[in-house]
Amino acid sequence: MLISENFCIKPFTTFGVEVRAQQFIVVSSIGDLQDLFKEGFLKTEPRMVLGRGSNVLFTDHYEGLILSCQIRGKEIVEENDDYVLLKVNSGEYWPGLVDEIVEKGLGGMENLCLIPGKVGAAPIQNIGAYGAEIKDVIESVEAFDMTTGTGKIFTKKECDFGYRSSIFKTKEKGRYFIVNVIFRLSKKPKLNLAYAPLKEIFQGRKEEEITIKEVSETIKKIRNKKIPDPDSLKNAGSFFKNPVVKKKTADKLRQQYKDMPYYPQTGNKVKLAAGWLIEQCGWKGKRIGDVGVYDKQALILVNYDNASGKDILQFSKKINASVIKKFGIHLEREVIVI
Length: 338
Description:
Layout lengths: L1 E7 L11 E8 L2 H9 L8 E4 L5 E2 L4 E8 L4 E6 L3 E7 L4 H10 L17 H5 L2 E2 L2 E2 L4 E8 L4 E6 L20 E11 L9 H6 L10 H15 L7 E5 L5 E3 H10 L6 E3 L3 E3 L2 H7 L6 E2 L2 E3 L6 E4 L5 H19 L8 E2 L1
Parallel strand pairs: 2-5, 3-5, 4-20
Antiparallel strand pairs: 1-2, 6-7, 7-12, 8-9, 10-11, 10-12, 13-19, 14-16, 15-16, 17-18, 18-19
């Protein structure tokens, strides 16, 4: 367990802003968490857990404790002819895990390749892409309660998953350190080709002839065309969530904007494409100082050089204001602002 003071966390976030944490502790085991609890470190306020930092924006120095998740390892806990239950510790890197699982021919994660971050963040955010969400393959989540020093296992239902959300992001925000996740992976994969470009690419082919590796590699190509690698261009992926609105609101907008993407949801709701809304407001490829909107995907805000977190936040507020003015729709941030 490594404890540092006044620690620069720039390398631990994909936005790469220059900020420091008052205390920074590397956590490599459950034992570390138990020791930290006994020694009173976990009483520090504010306090947060940081994985890869791929979905967070720091707007100032963090005057508190950051716990860096570095718990590694994975193991099969159950297996039969139909599925594998794989326990993966929270510090494992997500893209590498997905690649490994796809190579073994196990289905369920192939649509979620190349999402930057660590396993521990996956259930918090209920990460999703290309028609799939991580909740679809989660069996359970084990977490350490930082207020009581005890462990707890959450069933899938208890995680209360929603669109880019879970109990760990809402009701129990900041209380738990996720230790591991058990995934149910299929030995008889059922492909998810609902995403329009995927459906188009594989059109005319029988599903049983398509492998999960083909799906994964296709998604990687699609993703690489739209989303920059944060190691070469600093970003945190999609900055805003796709808004879900009442059907009558969406229908009214579609009368005016015939080509507006339109995705019916349950409960008489419609999901709209935030990237399309932003692009219609003229932001795609626009840059102000060191902050800009990626020229291949309007949902991506990028730090071109030395933008501060405040610069990026103010830029995002200007985008939101223009979408509200043009469409009457408020965009909710997907990125967590600290």
